[in-house]
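Sequence only, no structure available. Ideas?
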Amino acid sequence: MARHREFDVDAAVVAAMDVFRLNGYEGTSMRDLADATGLGSGSLYAAFGNKEGIYMAALDLYRARYAAPLADMLRAGHDAREVIREVFVSVVDDIVTDGQRKACLIVAAAMERAHLDKRVAERLRSTTQALELALFDTLAEGQLRGHIPADRDARDLAAFLVTSMQGLRVMGAINPDRATLMRSAEVALRCLI
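Reply:
I predicted one. Tokens follow.
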């Protein structure tokens, strides 16, 4: 008779995600993951297969916790400029309130793993495309309502805004000063005027 897992897989993924955000993929060992999750390596291997399996689960969780809520915020807003600004403020606030200065897992994975692992690259592409699509929908609706200039390509604007958000995360890892990050965000937001 097979044994049932006696641990919370979701809690293990949360702990693993935090370790990967602090140390990166290469800088994280199975021992680090075992220590962070409180699980033996055998339990980790049984649940996830290997370090890469845990990493993929962490990427999925990161998308659900950080990227999907931004897309939801965009879809819930009525004034395109206002809701996009709220999303940028949310990104900046997330950076500034992170006392450990943990990396954005999407940015870190893009730099460290995307060129080595097609599955990682596809997950990152899917995540950024979902955010771009939500921005595109918001921008296109804003153009119909007259909130965003109609002479701008909504797809190009959406791609630029995602690039700007990710740039804020990179610069926030270097200097998490709210005023500095908000000045950069405001420059990016001027494309909507």
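Residues 60-192 form a domain with the Tetracycline Repressor; domain 2 fold (CATH 1.10.357.10).
Hope that gets you unstuck.
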